[in-house]
Design brief:
Layout: E1 3-11, H1 17-25, E2 43-49, E3 52-58, H2 68-79, E4 86-92, H3 101-112, E5 116-122, H4 129-142, E6 147-150, H5 159-169, H6 187-202, E7 212-220, E8 238-247, H7 250-257, H8 262-279, E9 282-291, H9 299-304
Parallel strand pairs: 1-3, 1-4, 4-5, 5-6, 8-9
Antiparallel strand pairs: 2-3, 7-8
Helix pairs in contact: 6-8
Length: 310
Amino acid sequence: MHRSGFVNIVGNPNVGKSTLMNALVGERLSIITSKAQTTRHRIMGIVNGEDFQMVYSDTPGVLSPNYQLQRQMLEFSRSALVDADVLLYVTDVTDSADRNADFLEKVKKMASAGTRVFLIINKIDLTTQETLESLVSFWHNQLPEAEIFPISAQERFGVDQLFEAIKNALPECPPFFPKDQLTDKSERFFVNEIIREKILLNYDKEIPYSVEVEVESFIDHSEEKMTNDKSPMTNRNLVEISAVIYCERDSQKGILIGKAGAALKRVGSQARKDIEDFLQKQVFLQLFVKVDRDWRSNTGRLKHYGYDLT
């Protein structure tokens, strides 16, 4: 008997969805910061065992959209309600059911229709036993068909028990993907995300939300073949990457670069270290900043950057 299924993670911003995804997959696939709207795409992580395959999806936090990018992010979250074999609705000890009540109502309908819904109460290390018991009771009334799992994804408390429950809830099915596949995203995608994470960590206010990152060149010298034995040997463990940070305004460009380029150098240095850890290779990283005016509201530009469900 082999079990396979799609396990989709949804919930409000900043409740720990990406931390939970990484804990369940065992790899750092989703970037994590304390800022809302860190996750912009639906990111897949695949966990394989001899008799199971779990296909996890991390999704953007559910929000009321103010511009086209946020509308597309909301569509990524809504799409996770369509193909879930197991739905993980993540909340935390400070979250409220009043936030995005329309989306929660869709989750209730899924549970009533027979979809396995697990209600995850995250960050329980930040509350008391009395408060937790009150939250469990509250969410049981909100989603009576859901199974409730109090956890701390960051501290990994309760994660192993949740993992086993998910595995047992999967339908009998052959694997959907090759058993050695970890994700549906390319190395370039994760390089983009690592750079964007450093921007989120190093800049405040609107700057992190006004940028998009695009890798223009990705040369992995380990994949090259020697064509001339007399030519100088290139470092075979080197990846050369050139990426562009797009922003919406000239003033934002100046802030991103910083005085004498110091701010951009700091982002590049931090990103390079994490990219090297991710690729397990030496990385030469070049960053450039360009203006792409109002890209967050331009459907064509959003499609170019990968924000498209079609």
